[in-house]
Amino acid sequence: MSLKVGIFGGTFDPIHIGHLITTQYVLEKRKLDKIIFVPCHISPHKTDKNSSNPIHRLNMLRLAIEDIPYFDLTDYEIRKGNISYTYDTIVELRKTYANIELIIGYDNLVVFDKWHNPDKIVELAKLVVMKRVIDKETGTKNKYFENAIILDTPTIEISSSELRERIKNNLPVSFMVPPKVEEYIRKINLYRES
Ligand SMILES: Nc1ncnc2c1ncn2[C@@H]1O[C@H](COP(=O)(O)OP(=O)(O)OP(=O)(O)O)[C@@H](O)[C@H]1O
Ligand SMILES: O=C(O)c1ccc[n+]([C@@H]2O[C@H](COP(=O)([O-])O)[C@@H](O)[C@H]2O)c1
């Protein structure tokens, strides 16, 4: 029987417990065999933002999931470079996995109609959505809500931007990122200067 695999893309700058706890619930609720984290090179909707060096984002992700047997990662988008379109990644991963569910946060569902090739994405993968509080003005419902599976995951309202801001202001991020990730950030002095 073919594996049922969740694909979870992100900038992961840095990976945090919001990503990890909610995807753990997705794995259980969707009965997935594993979740593959896909750190992007450049997110299509964040081309104007200066994300950290992809190698650091990849290293932190690796440290966060290395002991978790059902979490995996691929550096496909980072190796490829340029803007990371999820459609291209799914086409690539479909060469290995026949049964793919694409995991996104609710904030991405409300703009999913603005993604590259959204119709083709939902032909290749089920869209699975994790709860996230969004601004009322951020978006309205689009046609992708109809077939998306919106899961009752816990809302853990922390974001990578909040963490970067905390570190810049010398506030602790203990409990918000795994200890090994916290240590990595401290060691290489990440997010200290803007
Ligand atoms: N706390 C959270 N709960 C549920 N989903 C989340 C959470 N944080 C991020 N996500 C989802 O995880 C995916 C990757 O998110 P990303 O790496 O951009 O993190 P982020 O915290 O939103 O980053 P930033 O604050 O820099 O925008 C997106 O689909 C996003 O919607
Ligand atoms: O393919 C697209 O058009 C697209 C548009 C927006 C976001 N994504 C992907 O969604 C993931 C989360 O993006 P973001 O901007 O919320 O960090 C990341 O893997 C992006 O590459 C993909």
Written overview of the protein:
The protein is globular. Strands 3-2-1-4-5-6 form a six-stranded parallel β-sheet, with helices on both faces. It is an alpha/beta fold and 194 residues long. Strand 1, helix 1 (17-29) and strand 2 form a beta-alpha-beta unit. The protein has helices at residues 17-29, 54-65, 76-80, 86-93, 106-109, 118-124, 160-168, 179-187, and strands spanning 4-10, 34-39, 71-73, 99-105, 126-130, 149-150. The protein has one domain (4-155): HUPs (Rossmann fold). Bound molecules: adenosine-5'-triphosphate and nicotinate mononucleotide. Adenosine-5'-triphosphate binds next to helix 1, strand 4, helix 5 and helix 7.
Please describe the biggest sheet, giving its number of strands, its sense, and whether it closes into a barrel: 6 strands, parallel
**CATH architectural category:** 3-Layer(aba) Sandwich
Compounds present? adenosine-5'-triphosphate, nicotinate mononucleotide
CATH superfamily: HUPs
Q: What's the count of strands?
A: 6
Pfam family, one: CTP_transf_like
GO molecular function: ATP binding; nicotinate-nucleotide adenylyltransferase activity
InterPro entries: Cyt_trans-like, NadD/NMNAT, Rossmann-like_a/b/a_fold
Family: Belongs to the NadD family.
